[in-house]
């Protein structure tokens, strides 16, 4: 049975229940290939869940089901309220301005003036108030991804779905985007489901980490520390990081003793090669 609750009109009130999304027994095949098997997943109101897994394990397929982008979902998929989606590529319309790109996400919603006012407000939230009239091709990769975030947020979703939205960005821009996501999450009281390959990104952003393996949900870690305390609690984070990597099939890294370049012996060395001509 497919139980879908899309909200194209944007009129569904915020639900009082515990879960913003609830998936039960979801499976998905493409021809003979079973990509998702018997998936159960809950996303609670206001939490950030990171979905990790090796390439091809079915993360994007699950996210597409939650975003109502899959025409053939199987099992029970219930989403309370609106969803917004941002993908790895910004997917902007190059023949529309930044302002128009964001306003278009509200096409089935309020009247034109309000659509553009909401788009302007959301673009200001992502730091692009000055770029309303810019064309997508005039933007940097980070700016384009901010527009994509604004487009996902403008309808005030209760569940923001992010499919590796920062993986193509440079490291510094990625850190800025993480800070932006946390700011937006605080302001918009929404839940976020983040698909990522990056364990450190997941640890930096998520309240809960879910690992997928072979089309199934595997282990889950609750990050119980308040977000503000997360940075000082490095031992907990390091342990979870190591466990997640093992769950992803990455062998634990052995200690990395330095091999003395001259003697070949293992262990830290302050050996300085002798200067030419020294006695
Ligand atoms: N429309 C489709 N038709 C046929 N096969 C598909 C389709 N969409 C996805 N698949 C297959 O389903 C599997 C899972 O794809 P999916 O994109 O969900 O994986 P993923 O975990 O998100 O991978 P990545 O991390 O590399 O993005 C892959 O083998 C993919 O080839």
Report on the architecture of this protein.
- The strands form two sheets. A six-stranded mixed sheet has the order 5-6-7-3-8-9, sandwiched between helices. It has a three-stranded antiparallel sheet with strand order 2-1-4, covered by helices on one side.
- The chain is of the alpha/beta class and 279 residues long.
- The chain has a domain at 93-155.
- The chain has helices at 59-66, 98-103, 112-125, 141-153, 171-188, 199-205, 234-247; strands at residues 19-30, 33-44, 48-53, 74-79, 83-86, 159-163, 191-196, 208-213, 216-222.
- The model is unreliable at 1-16 (pLDDT under 50).
- The structure holds adenosine-5'-triphosphate (ATP).
- Residues 30, 35, 53, 55-61 line the site of adenosine-5'-triphosphate.
- Residues 1-15 have a biased composition (Low complexity).
- Keywords: ATP-binding, Cell membrane, Membrane, Nucleotide-binding, Translocase, Transport.
- This is ATP-binding cassette domain-containing protein.
């Amino acid at each position: 049975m497919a139980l879908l609750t899309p909200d194209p009109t944007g009129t569904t009130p915020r639900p009082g229940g515990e879960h913003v999304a609830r998936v039960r027994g979801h499976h998905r095949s493409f021809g003979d290939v079973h990509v998702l098997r018997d998936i159960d997943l809950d996303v609670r109101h206001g939490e950030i869940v990171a979905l990790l897994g090796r390439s091809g394990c079915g993360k994007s397929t699950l996210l597409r089901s939650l975003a109502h982008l899959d025409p053939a979902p199987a099992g029970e998929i219930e989403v309370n309220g609106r969803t917004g989606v941002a993908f790895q590529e910004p997917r902007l319309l190059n023949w529309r301005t930044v302002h128009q790109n964001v306003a278009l996400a509200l096409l089935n919603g309020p009247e034109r003036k309000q659509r553009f006012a909401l788009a302007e407000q959301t673009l200001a939230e992502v730091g692009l108030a000055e770029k309303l009239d810019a064309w997508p091709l005039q933007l940097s990769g980070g700016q384009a991804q901010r527009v994509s975030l604004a487009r996902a947020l403008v309808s005030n979703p209760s569940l923001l779905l992010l499919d590796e939205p920062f993986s193509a960005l440079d490291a510094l821009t990625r850190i800025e985007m993480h800070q932006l996501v946390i700011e937006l999450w605080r302001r918009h009281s929404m839940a976020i489901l983040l698909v990522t390959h990056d364990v450190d990104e997941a640890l930096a952003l998520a309240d809960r980490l879910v690992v997928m393996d072979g089309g199934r949900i595997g282990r889950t870690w609750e990050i119980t520390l308040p977000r503000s305390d997360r940075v000082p609690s490095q031992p907990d984070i390091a342990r979870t990081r190591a466990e997640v990597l093992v769950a992803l099939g990455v062998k634990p890294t052995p200690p990395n003793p330095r091999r003395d370049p001259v003697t070949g012996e293992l262990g830290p060395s302050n050996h300085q090669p002798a200067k030419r001509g020294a006695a």
